[in-house]
Amino acid sequence: MRGELTPITEPGARFVELAEAHAADFAARADGHDRDGTFPFENFDDMKQSGFIAAPVPAELGGIGLTSVRDLAVGLSRLGRGDGSTSIAVNMHLFSVWTMQRMWRGVQAGGEGPPAPVLEGLLKGVLGGGLIAAITGTEAGTSIRYPNTEVTPVDGGYLLNGYKIFGTLSPVATVFFVPARLRGDDGAYESVLCMLGRGTEGQDIKDNWDALGMRASGSGDVAYKDVRLPAANVIRSGTPLGDRPAAQGDPGATQLGLLASFLGIAEAAADIAVNLAKNRRKGPGNLPLAERAWMQQLIGEMDIELATARAMLDFNGRHADEMINAYPRRDMPEDVQREAERLHQAAKYVIQRNAISIVDKALTASGGAGYMSKSPLSRLYRDVRAGPFMQPYSPPEALEFIGRVALDQPLGPDL
Amino acid sequence: MRGELTPITEPGARFVELAEAHAADFAARADGHDRDGTFPFENFDDMKQSGFIAAPVPAELGGIGLTSVRDLAVGLSRLGRGDGSTSIAVNMHLFSVWTMQRMWRGVQAGGEGPPAPVLEGLLKGVLGGGLIAAITGTEAGTSIRYPNTEVTPVDGGYLLNGYKIFGTLSPVATVFFVPARLRGDDGAYESVLCMLGRGTEGQDIKDNWDALGMRASGSGDVAYKDVRLPAANVIRSGTPLGDRPAAQGDPGATQLGLLASFLGIAEAAADIAVNLAKNRRKGPGNLPLAERAWMQQLIGEMDIELATARAMLDFNGRHADEMINAYPRRDMPEDVQREAERLHQAAKYVIQRNAISIVDKALTASGGAGYMSKSPLSRLYRDVRAGPFMQPYSPPEALEFIGRVALDQPLGPDL
Amino acid sequence: MRGELTPITEPGARFVELAEAHAADFAARADGHDRDGTFPFENFDDMKQSGFIAAPVPAELGGIGLTSVRDLAVGLSRLGRGDGSTSIAVNMHLFSVWTMQRMWRGVQAGGEGPPAPVLEGLLKGVLGGGLIAAITGTEAGTSIRYPNTEVTPVDGGYLLNGYKIFGTLSPVATVFFVPARLRGDDGAYESVLCMLGRGTEGQDIKDNWDALGMRASGSGDVAYKDVRLPAANVIRSGTPLGDRPAAQGDPGATQLGLLASFLGIAEAAADIAVNLAKNRRKGPGNLPLAERAWMQQLIGEMDIELATARAMLDFNGRHADEMINAYPRRDMPEDVQREAERLHQAAKYVIQRNAISIVDKALTASGGAGYMSKSPLSRLYRDVRAGPFMQPYSPPEALEFIGRVALDQPLGPDL
Amino acid sequence: MRGELTPITEPGARFVELAEAHAADFAARADGHDRDGTFPFENFDDMKQSGFIAAPVPAELGGIGLTSVRDLAVGLSRLGRGDGSTSIAVNMHLFSVWTMQRMWRGVQAGGEGPPAPVLEGLLKGVLGGGLIAAITGTEAGTSIRYPNTEVTPVDGGYLLNGYKIFGTLSPVATVFFVPARLRGDDGAYESVLCMLGRGTEGQDIKDNWDALGMRASGSGDVAYKDVRLPAANVIRSGTPLGDRPAAQGDPGATQLGLLASFLGIAEAAADIAVNLAKNRRKGPGNLPLAERAWMQQLIGEMDIELATARAMLDFNGRHADEMINAYPRRDMPEDVQREAERLHQAAKYVIQRNAISIVDKALTASGGAGYMSKSPLSRLYRDVRAGPFMQPYSPPEALEFIGRVALDQPLGPDL
């Protein structure tokens, strides 16, 4: 596709190549799964088969060795062209795997982190087809840093109780990471992270995802009722509930794959619009719409928005890679993290706004045709609107976050 | 609703009152018809029952005597809050009836037009429950002024053949007006308008409307195959195909009811968002979202867009009423028509753009809640996007039209 | 001018007629005063001569009897086309006179207010050429409701001390109203309003206005040092400093004349652009720029913004007139005032934003020509930017204000 | 400055360092030159002294060896923070020198181009303080590819006659390149490029630059009357007037330095606004404005626009460098050039639009303070508006250009 982003690392090139092949297949199934609201299990079988899901696993351990988050994002933009639902779902997994390899390398470089064998176990599990549901912390009525989901100590371990929503990838995930809280002796809560395998007793993965768009992303609820966890599966943070973690280790990159998925949706829409304008003729003159001045202006605006979204993804991605490489031990200072997040939120704001606008313009270019259920544009219009809901932050919250950082103001408890 | 438009005529007040009552009922059925893609026949029964569909019929003939297009629009904005599909469908009818009463008054004032008895017959038919499908001229692959649908002379009458799309209201319309072309002896085409009753042999009203939104508007295809029409039912224009009519008689008003329907959709979305922000609390502080600064900014922007859309509808409506009253014989000069259309297109551009933006902001205000299929916002998001497709013009075409008028340039064949 | 607003009252028609005649003269002097930063004393002589400055004086007292704020605004939009600086300066006076006639009528209708003879004295002074500097309360470092300017009691009267900025019209004003504070026995401050004639000892009207635009508006500083005022000239409010007045009596109208001035600036710029596009030819084709597709799109966008600004002024103006007429005794309830102000701020937001955008587009249409100092567009570009500074509110503050009202939130001390 | 672009090459780092030092000095003089409309000769003396003007001269010939257009742009963004006028003026020179080194390297790599000794002569002249006025082709009433300026053959050489406007840098340029036309024997015109030294008889460099902004850029007219040129100084193109050159050799880079200058202006404005918000306190609460929610939202929006402008400059710059390196012989195929120009125009559109918007928001953040002549913001507001006039293209023309390229439409004679 003209003007598209291209990978800048070798493993990235391999990853993008696989993504393009998958996207072609997934595109053919996307409208059906969207209509029926079904989960595309076969897409995930394909991605296991090809090694795509193991791309960030270190080459030392048998993976492709993808380390660049920028290239990870480029690949997901390709996948998003074919099926946005699959792209955001597998991104949950891929970013988790990327984080694990990052931790693994960090530990080897002398940084702090989970024991290498644990990480290696998880990474090897991925090579064997394991799918990791990223840290899906959303709950109704509270914000991400204040889960109501709770673990309580019980002989030699914990009981987990809570209710999570937006559990993207849950229909196929084999490993789940669940943020929760733990009440200390002083009555104050500590943030913890639970790890558990699919099918642990008491976990109820609901098949209840029914939304405007991203209908094939498997984002239903997951309930936890008296789930018994061994102590080792509850990772203590040592920090009070709500505190920002001292070192996240993944600056300004958390949503890059998501952003890329929405860029891919926009690219697909733009492509449809351009082809339609070039081929559709209209009476009385019977000229292709591409020769009309207003269509050229419309496509011109759309193309600028597309270039801008790509530039922001590239800019954010290169910056993230640079920061990541600068701190191999994952000991990035808080102010560096804050600046990286500021840029990341700007990229999110622009890419999602532009993606929505591009799909809107593609619809306009299509005349009434794109409004019909049978047109992929009608799916893209619904899928693309999911973007601004991705936490953190919604667009107006992002403005507040960025403004506070730029003005050296404290973030406060609500951001 | 705060800041809403209010009627400025007595019949308008009656019409708006009925609209509000209907809207309350229709709102309860809207999500169901949307989900199933069914036509809300019961809504139309209600509107026949109440006299709503006969509002523009002159009081002299037994109707409410609604003459103000501004107030017609205000009423449709109320209906649009309850169900956009019904609102745009009944608008097709109401604007037709309004046009007939306008013609009827024009003829009585000494202007030209169809014979009064014909008009009275139609108007009285409406009192009896008749529903008129407005001039729905859309066809695939050509523009509105160049129909490929054609009448050919046959002993004492004509045969009509063609295929129309976007036949809004067709599931219940009792009278259809169909634009067509007629080849003259010199081989050149003339524009004609055919009138026929529902169920005329050869008319095939298809139940095939399946779109992203406005799913209950009954906008499927209508095919005409060798439909035999008496000569009196084919209204000759005497002007070559594609020519703009010398006197339209309805300056800058054709889409006012449509615009109003979309304003109503936006008002409904804004209302949901405001209520949600006032009532939804979120942890950890458990404060209503309405107290968050970013929410206030977001709602502030939304409210400005809403006020602007209302102002444009009011401004366009008052201007249209003024022009209509200034030319009781429907002999408005072409430059006056052009200026009125220029303002009308500006109103269309702004109202539809703002309506889309308001629904978008309402979604943002809702957090993820509005993205669920069960939320009315997810319907409003799909319904509102129909607006810019309404012909004439699409937004970029409107810019060209307005620019040409402002610059005293000829419009050319494509606009 | 095509599409312009027209008066809806008889006195309004007279006022607009005068405004158009003045505008033609002032336009010829505008660039000179702008370049030199001089005050257009001759414009004010002309407006005294014609009776323009006395337009709102009741006909009973010898004036034109202009009561419609909408029509007041329409007239100022005309004046703004000729010279924005003069328009905003005389608006300070005209709105003051309008307020006095409103008070005078209110008192006669049985409402509360200043004694009729005082009001009549001021109104008759205007007939004799008096110019009233509106309540110009701006001070550096504080907001309008919290003046640091203070009166202190002294035998039989008060001493006034303080420093005001943005004293528009001060070069010719004959009467000044100065908001100040008065410390009570309990140490708390009360809001008061001082009235004094030009040249009262201790008043220092500085000739120090030097700004980016509106250079002929005479908006320099006015210092008050130990100005002795009789008790009758200090109007006590009885309300604590910072409190919003219980009844303002002028809902959503305070800035209508200012907004109109900026609309006039935008209209002048659009007019220049359209004429330029129609007449300027460019090689190699030597066609007028009006025939270029991109110019048509640009002018189309500009025209929509213009129509929107006009619609907002009309909508706000009609609403304000309606509210004013509904409460002849000036006892409008606070919630009605709040709603009126909400609409007013929306109108301000849109009109000023659009005016800036229209001038920007006019510059684009001009090619480099409008960027030259000798082009009036280069003045309009600077003048129009004054709009968003007018208090209350700046654009982002307006969003907060409107959002809070829409969400039924308290306004807090800072708005 | 937080989030600023940083150089990615070694010579770029040296260049940026010099730019920062110069910017600090130039900033102190900028308001004075702006007020008086004088040319900052001392700035150019400083830049000669430091070697800044010779940065693109190859290290082999004694320069800094700056080859990256991206880093050239980064340096000019720094300079633009200090003084936009100087930045756009010296950019004319620097981009010319960059082009010469590119030609020189191209010739050495086996590509076509002017003889190496000629290029080396020019490049060494720059080391000695020579300043090259870039190809300034603007004339009133025609477009850049169709100059009316003409050379006519005369014994052994040519006579040059014509009138150029917007001759930025002309007060100090020592070498001028002047596009002209030459009538062939068949009566058709050929494009030619004339080279002449300052002070050649018949050249009249006028001191008549008087514009809204960029007042210190020395952009007055230059007239040519019967200027006698040796044949070697008239570079024949062999292509008909108006034809796009077969190989430009500088894809998507022509305006990068200009864009960067405007980014610098925006950065300066943002910096002022942020500092002001952090330090200015306002009554009654006396809190810094940075703590107000609306200020945070405003600065948040501004910061996103700034990040986007930087991303676009980076993206365009990296792409240009990549293309340049891919074609060391300057034989880039036309479609590659077209695509590069498409991205370049998108970058221009976004950067200039955002720069204007950023300065606008900085003004809003300043309250009335930024509107005073003494505030640098009032200069930045005028300077930044020069951006969209830079040819090619104006914003609406850019939309047409980009749309046509995206739709594979021919460009036509007017673009």
Give an overview in words.
Four copies of one chain form a homotetramer. By secondary structure, the first copy, chain A, is α+β, with helices and mostly antiparallel strands. The first copy, chain A, has helices spanning 10-36, 41-50, 69-82, 84-108, 116-127, 256-279, 293-326, 334-365, 376-384, 395-406; strands spanning 132-133, 150-154, 157-164, 175-183, 189-197, 203-205, 222-230, 234-240, 281-282, 287-288. In chain A, strands 1, 2, 3, 4, 5, 6, 7 and 8 form an eight-stranded mixed β-sheet that branches. A two-stranded antiparallel sheet of chain A has the order 9-10. In chain A, helix 4 (84-108) runs antiparallel to helix 6, helix 8 (334-365) runs antiparallel to helix 9 and helix 8 packs antiparallel against helix 10 (395-406). Chains in contact: A-B, A-C, A-D, B-C, B-D, C-D. At the A-B interface, strand 9, helix 7, helix 8, helix 9 and helix 10 of A face strand 9, helix 7, helix 8, helix 9 and helix 10 of B.
Topology overview:
The structure is a homotetramer.
Chain A: H1 10-36, H2 41-50, H3 69-82, H4 84-108, H5 116-127, E1 132-133, E2 150-154, E3 157-164, E4 175-183, E5 189-197, E6 203-205, E7 222-230, E8 234-240, H6 256-279, E9 281-282, E10 287-288, H7 293-326, H8 334-365, H9 376-384, H10 395-406
Parallel strand pairs in A: 1-4, 2-4
Antiparallel strand pairs in A: 2-3, 3-7, 4-5, 5-8, 6-7, 9-10
Helix pairs in contact in A: 1-2, 1-3, 3-4, 3-6, 3-7, 4-5, 4-6, 6-7, 6-8, 6-9, 7-8, 8-9, 8-10
